[in-house]
């Protein structure tokens, strides 16, 4: 299997997905006044670890906003699946749905088949996290092939605070 992983320092692609309130939205762009965007890709409503992670992420929104990083969260779920999932989420950040398999592949995400119809009815992305800087380039990337490995949110946000305060360069760009 060939995988096309996004490179640190590369331009982040446009990522247009369905939006419950606006029809469609390009979630690769930060909402003003933020200058950076963090995109969290989660597996879907069927994943209790995702639900817990997203609820925990809510506690970091103010710290992210303080360093001009806004947040967008997306899965491959349908709008109906997202609506059902919202009943178990206590979050203020925008959650999008309808990430296509082609988009998952373009982001270099791992994709899984459901284990049963009770889990979900479509292939879904494994977790991914992308931080896009003010130039539209990929500052931080984390891609996992299972729900058990995700960035620790305290470490991640503390690290982003340090990066922003110290103008820390993009890492992992060798040989460029």
From TrEMBL:
Thioredoxin domain span: 6-165
Pfam families linked to this entry: AhpC-TSA
Stored Gene3D superfamilies: Glutaredoxin
Protein's UniProt name: Redoxin domain-containing protein
Organism encoding this protein: Corallincola platygyrae
């Amino acid at each position: 299997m060939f995988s096309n992983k996004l490179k640190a320092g590369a331009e982040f692609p446009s990522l247009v997905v369905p939006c419950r309130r606006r029809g469609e939205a390009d979630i690769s762009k930060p909402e003003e006044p933020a200058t950076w965007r963090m995109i969290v890709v989660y597996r879907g409503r069927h994943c209790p670890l995702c639900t817990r992670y997203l609820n925990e992420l809510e506690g970091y929104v103010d710290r992210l906003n303080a360093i001009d990083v806004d947040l967008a969260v997306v899965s491959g779920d349908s709008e109906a699946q997202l609506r059902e999932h919202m009943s178990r989420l206590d979050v203020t950040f925008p959650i999008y749905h309808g990430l296509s398999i082609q988009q998952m592949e373009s982001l270099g995400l791992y994709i899984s088949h459901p284990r049963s119809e009770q889990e979900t009815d479509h292939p879904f992305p494994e977790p991914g996290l992308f931080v896009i800087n003010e130039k539209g380039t990929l500052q931080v990337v984390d891609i996992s092939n299972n729900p058990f490995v995700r960035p620790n949110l305290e470490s991640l946000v503390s690290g982003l605070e340090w990066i922003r305060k110290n103008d820390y360069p993009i890492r992992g760009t060798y040989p460029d």
